[in-house]
Amino acid sequence: MAISAWLTDVSLPVLTWALGLGVISTGFAYFGISIVLKSISANVYSLVDIIVSPVVAATFGWLIFSELPGNRTIYGGALLLAAGFWLTRKMNRGKEHAPVHPCHTQHGALEC
After folding, report:
1. 45: helix, coil or strand?
2. Which of 32, 54, 61, 103 could form a disulfide with 112 if both were Cys (CB 3.0 to 4.6 A apart)?
3. How far apart, in whole angstroms, are the C-alpha atoms of residue 55 and residue 31?
4. 26 with 76, same domain?
5. Cα 86 to chain center, whole Å?
6. Rounded CA gap, 108 and 102, in Å?
7. Which of 37-52 are b and which e, b meaning 16 or more Cβ less than 10 Å from the residue's Cβ?
């Protein structure tokens, strides 16, 4: 009952925009991730995602809402980024020439 009452209060254009933004942004994100993971390892992707998401969010917050992050936020972000760099380097040490995707191996190329 509560959901149907909520849907009748929301106009069609608002509902269309909300559904469109959810489906398109989620769909494009997962499609893009699947393409990217064929060419780089998941460890590298996770590092890029850890770096890009907060930086973009903070930049948009500054540009759109004139919000400046506090010193503790900046220090905490720097600590998380440094830990991400360190973990990624440690996990990838010795695997520089390992194939990213099974299709990039001699045996996998025949199956893909």
Report:
1. helix
2. 103
3. 22
4. no
5. 19
6. 5
7. eeeebebbbebeebee
What's the chain's length in residues? Answer: 112
Q: Residue 65 is part of which domain span?
A: 41-112
Burial of 100 (0-12, 13-18, 19+ CB in 10 A): middle
Residues 94 and 62 occupy one common structural domain = yes
Average of pLDDT values for 11-31? 82
Measured torsion, CA atoms of residues 82, 87, 92, 93, in degrees rounded to the nearest 10: 90
Q: pTM of the entire structure?
A: 0.49
Q: For residues 37 and 60, give the distance between their C-alpha atoms in angstroms, rounded to a whole number.
A: 26
Assess whether 71 and 100 both reside in one domain. yes
- Same domain for 27 and 70: no
Distance CA 67, CA 46 (A): 26
Tell me the per-residue pLDDT of 84-108, one tens digit each, with 9 for 90 and over.
Answer: 778 877 877 776 666 666 665 656 5
Rounded to whole angstroms, the Cα distance separating 23 from 21 reads: 6
Furthest CA-CA distance within the chain: 59
